[in-house]
Amino acid sequence: MLNVIYTLLLRFEESRAQKTIIEKVNIDEVLDNLEIFYISEKLKYTCAYLSWNKMTKLNFSVENIDDLLIRAQQNKYNNIPPIAIYLTILFAKLITETINTLMNLLNYTNIRSS
User: Fold this and answer.
1) Measured between alpha carbons, how far is residue 107 from residues 54, 60, 98 in Å?
2) What is the C-alpha end-to-end distance of the chain, expressed in Å?
3) How many Å apart are CA 33 and CA 26, to the nearest integer?
């Protein structure tokens, strides 16, 4: 009889201990922080990659940059400093490249028309 009571108490304590461990680890918060870290790192390396690409004059393409921009521009990431900073740098690089391309095109059309 004592053995049965001891076994039941042991199972109850194990169950309670597992629940408190799970309650202490907030899975949603961990996943959100991992997502923030992933997006921040991806933006950082994309900015570095675009800078290296420009300095070395190699024309590598950055894949999935549109998906990254969509994810990084979500409202829940507006207050995250690394995401805001790298997103601003990335936009500056992309806009500069677009302006340079348009200026080259304009120069080319001016040369062709004269």
Assistant:
1) 21, 24, 14
2) 105
3) 11
Three-class HEC string of the chain: CHHHHHHHHHHHHHHHHHHHHHHHCCHHHHHHHHHHHHHHHHHHHHHHHHHHHHHHCCCCCCCCHHHHHHHHCCHHHCCCHHHHHHHHHHHHHHHHHHHHHHHHHHHHHHHHHC
State how far the Cα of 33 lies from the Cα of 37, in Å rounded to an integer: 6
Report the 10 Å Cβ neighbour count for 40.
20
Give the tens place of pLDDT for each residue, 77-97. 888 999 999 999 888 888 887
pLDDT in tens, 27-68: 888 889 999 999 999 999 988 888 887 778 766 677 788 888
Tokens found for residue 92: 């500056």
Q: Which residue has the tokens 């194990």?
A: 14
Domain extents for the chain?
A: 26-113
In single-letter form, the type of residue at position 20 comes to: T
Residue 21 φ/ψ, nearest 5 degrees? -65, -45
